[in-house]
Design goal:
Structural class: alpha/beta
Oligomer: single chain
CATH superfamily of the largest domain: TPP-binding domain
Bound molecules: 2'-O-acetyl adenosine-5-diphosphoribose
Largest sheet: 6 strands, parallel
Number of helices: 9
Low-confidence stretches: none
CATH class of the largest domain: Alpha Beta
Number of strands: 9
Strand order of the largest sheet: 3-2-1-7-8-9
CATH architecture of the largest domain: 3-Layer(aba) Sandwich
Helix content: 25-40%
Shape: elongated
Mean pLDDT: 94
Length: 246
């Protein structure tokens, strides 16, 4: 793996690091991505199902799609990309992992300095009153109902919905401050996550992309590494450790 001189310098001296991850980082754990050349959802179109309108029209179908995805989680494990990223937070004075993933694999790999932009598959809330639901009620209804009568839904961000404001603000600030910015396993087409790289670039950060294939935003990056994140991120961690030891 060849690093540009800008990247070597940044690996040596960067104080603040932001890593943005997407579905591709979990692909090697066995979870499907939304776009890209492999592992797409064949039978379901997320653009149609992950919307408030779909939940209003077909609540049972949307709920069951998420239940099916939830049932897979205990069966999959964090992969070497998640683990390397979890280690990386120890090597920078300031660090933030911003994930678009809702699968919780980063936390299971040990990441602690992180925010979830699109929510978490393991949480639920009421679609009417907004109350967080810790334990799902035993019920024949699909989806189950909140005490207020509203349908319970996963606590994830759907297309057309606002991102959690505090989380987005934190991610934006970290992008403005970043000396080095990594984009790992994301197609960089869904906003506002896709803009974080541009914000970092405008503030002088070194930009690194890791993906199986080039994305629309690749021209923005100083270094683009094409290949599986599970192979590249452990080598990136090694690069950081070596550069900082010099
Ligand atoms: P996408 O499915 O759009 O993109 C996944 C990216 O990962 C693609 O560019 C793949 O080429 C790349 N990829 C696949 N396997 C990889 C591997 N092993 N190593 C490295 N890269 C790999 O996923 P996101 O960018 O996360 O939002 O999508 C963003 C958002 O769109 C998601 O959070 C979700 C979706 O609709 C909501 O549900 C709100």
């Amino acid at each position: 793996m060849e690093f540009s001189s800008k990247l070597i310098e940044a690996l040596k001296s960067a104080q603040t690091c932001l890593i943005l991850t997407g579905a591709g980082v979990s692909a090697e754990s066995g979870l499907q991505t939304f776009r890209g050349m492999q592992g797409l959802w064949d039978d379901f179109d997320p653009m149609k199902l992950a919307t408030p309108e779909a939940f209003a029209c077909e609540p049972q179908k949307v709920w069951e799609w998420y239940q099916w995805r939830r049932e897979k989680l205990p069966l999959v494990q964090p992969n070497p990309a998640h683990k390397a990223i979890a280690q990386m937070e120890k090597h920078f004075e300031e660090f933030l992992l911003v994930t678009q993933n809702i699968d919780g694999l980063h936390q299971r790999a040990g990441s602690s300095k992180m925010v979830e932009l699109h929510g978490n598959l393991n949480r639920n809330k009421c679609s009417r009153c907004g109350t967080m639901i810790e334990t799902l009620p035993v019920s024949d209804q699909v989806p189950p109902r909140c005490k207020c009568g509203g349908r319970i839904r996963p606590d994830v961000v759907w297309f057309g919905e606002m991102l959690p404001e505090a989380v987005l603000r934190q991610a934006w600030r970290a992008a403005e401050k970043a000396d080095i910015f990594f984009s790992v396993g994301t197609s960089s087409v869904v906003q506002p996550a896709a803009s974080l790289g541009l914000v970092a670039k405008n503030n002088g950060a070194a930009l690194v992309e890791v993906n199986l294939e080039r994305t629309e935003l690749s021209p923005l990056f100083n270094d683009v590494f094409l290949g599986p994140a599970g192979e590249i991120m452990p080598r990136m961690l090694e690069g950081i450790i070596n550069a900082r030891a010099l």
